[in-house]
Amino acid sequence: MPVRLLFALFVLVFGTVGAFAQTATFETAARFAVLMDYESGTVIFQKDADARLEPASMTKLMTLAVVFNELRAGRIKLTDQFFISENAWRTGGAASGGSTMFADLNSQIPVEDLIRSVIIQSGNDAAIALAEGIAGNEATFAGMMNQLARQIGLEGSNFVNSTGLPDPDEYSTARDLANLGRYLIREFPEFYHYFSEPEMEWNGIKQANRNSLIEVGIGVDGLKTGHTEAAGYGAVISTAQGGRRLVAVVHGLGSMRERAEEGRKLLTWGTRAFERFSAYKEGQVVAYADVYGGTSSSVGLVGKGEIALYLPRGSRECLSAKIHYVGPLLPPVKAGEQVAELQVFCNDDLVQSAPLFAAEDVPQGDLVRRATDALKQLALGWL
């Protein structure tokens, strides 16, 4: 069933979504990469975006998400003092050889300084102290991390510690990390300023922010870097330069210098190479998805807010688009539930994708409706 769009023809494609093509207009040395429009969640560029990766210290963004939620709920305060246990000191302190705050054993440190250390210094001792101070131990805290990850839709991630120290059961994806960055920026603006602090001193030791792109003049104001020997160098970064905010992930690179260069190139390309095209206003139905056995035989698909596409300059004549979803949908379908994805192509290259959500509830239908849909599927198949 064809569906008219403002700029192209959509073809409704039922079944599982196949592997995405990647746009040929940009290349990166990163093994994994995503460039995402902050407002809409639209993916402008992706490379192995859903492949499992070792997040290294980018895990600490999930740690911070839990900490910020605890602060907002009033269960902890920035002025609370958390204890530096022997576990935090040995596993994450100076003796561990990893990134550290250089916190003293058995000292007590305000939550605010622990947060700043996690962000600026990537302090493993600070991350463990936060986990233990909130949940008693890292295992319980990791359960909180995973519960929140599910709530915010990070379907390809699992966390077992607060630091990102190597563990075979700790993993994420570039897409999840980008969405985690969006979540932190959107939900906790009162804490976002910590990410752009250039340095932090503790115990007489001054350390620069490990996100070196903050000071190169392209508007980067967050978020977090990561590195292990096995995973390579990676970063989740964001800029609001150029009139809109972008969130990027690059990972699997060979050095800090390469990480900074590939991140800079991706953000600069995203800022300069695209023009904004307002496709659908907030609440405007893009298309309809079939529903099997519901009170209605279809449900409208809408964006979350306006769907504004960012397309390569001068490329509108090459555009085509598809809606992908696993269908028919099965009730109950909840309003606001992500059920489909808009994919925009230039020739055969995927240049953008954006999530689509159910516009209204579709409860399960009565026996007559379900029997009718069953007969339709048996007789005709689902077209």
TrEMBL record:
Secretion signal span: 1-21
Reactions accelerated catalytically: Preferential cleavage: (Ac)2-L-Lys-D-Ala-|-D-Ala. Also transpeptidation of peptidyl-alanyl moieties that are N-acyl substituents of D-alanine
Function: Removes C-terminal D-alanyl residues from sugar-peptide cell wall precursors.
Annotated EC: 3.4.16.4
Superkingdom assignment: Bacteria
Secreted in keyword set: no
Name assigned to this protein: serine-type D-Ala-D-Ala carboxypeptidase
Catalytic-site annotation from UniProt: 57 (acyl-ester intermediate), 60 (proton acceptor), 122
Keyword Protease: yes
Record keywords: Carboxypeptidase, Cell shape, Cell wall biogenesis/degradation, Hydrolase, Peptidoglycan synthesis, Protease, Signal
Residues given in the record as substrate binding sites: 224
Family designation: Belongs to the peptidase S11 family.
Annotated InterPro entries: Beta-lactam/transpept-like, Peniciliin-bd_prot_C_sf, Peptidase_S11, Peptidase_S11_C, Peptidase_S11_C_sf, Peptidase_S11_N
One GO molecular-function entry: serine-type D-Ala-D-Ala carboxypeptidase activity
Species of provenance: Devosia soli
Recorded metabolic or biological pathway in which this protein acts: Cell wall biogenesis; peptidoglycan biosynthesis
Peptidase S11 D-Ala-D-Ala carboxypeptidase A C-terminal domain: residues covered: 274-364
Gene Ontology biological process: cell wall organization; peptidoglycan biosynthetic process; proteolysis; regulation of cell shape
